[in-house]
């Protein structure tokens, strides 16, 4: 147990309205900025969080978001969990397909969010709700490209 | 005396300004879903009552556009086109553009300009020009 490497700052936020979605975006951005995510990465993870939180609201009938800062050695990252107790997803593979939608949207939520983060996993059972977990790591500035330096 | 802080959860309607025949809409900060949908209705109402022939939507103050807001913007543009006017989206931040492309939302058929001045110029130069329909059929 090294308290310095695993800070206990886990934040749980309710998702029950579109105002809650705005608050989730705000909090995720705050954490991402503090952990050192660059602007483009911040924008990507906040957008992914917005898509997933909206899924929780629209498809799951509401739930909660959890924000876990990750500190693994020098690496910094963010794990986000979106939990609902809604109807679950019958066919996860199909739900991950671009353009697949049951909610009247564009069907980009899950598949699009997956492209914006490093990892995305879905745990679901019909009738048992859904947990979507995403992880994103801060990328260091790329080294000077060969030929330029 | 003291104004309440502008916390998310306290939505204010988005103002729509008329500049001659053009409606200028400046989106700021974090837009709630309900506000975006309200805006769609406000803009089409204003076109119907003001004979505006162009709408400029400035998103330079917006730090994220997700698929919901992207869809509302595309639907605003489609509705505006049906009402014989033209929409130009302007001021998108680079990080937002990169994220939207990765998300898979490239908003085909939506006219864009780098900033509001260029968007106004674009419409003033040729107000009648309406963006051609995309092969995909928009949105």
From TrEMBL, chain A:
Name of the molecule in the record: Anti-sigma regulatory factor
Membrane spanning residue stretches: none
Domain Histidine kinase/HSP90-like ATPase: 40-140
Lineage: Bacteria, Bacillati, Actinomycetota, Actinomycetes, Kitasatosporales
Origin superkingdom: Bacteria
SMART domains in UniProt: HATPase_c
Automatic annotation (TrEMBL), chain B:
Highest taxon listed in the record's lineage: Bacteria
Organism of this sequence: Streptomyces fuscichromogenes
Parts of the chain that traverse the membrane: none
Domain STAS: 12-123
Entry protein name: Anti-anti-sigma factor
PROSITE patterns (alphabetical): STAS
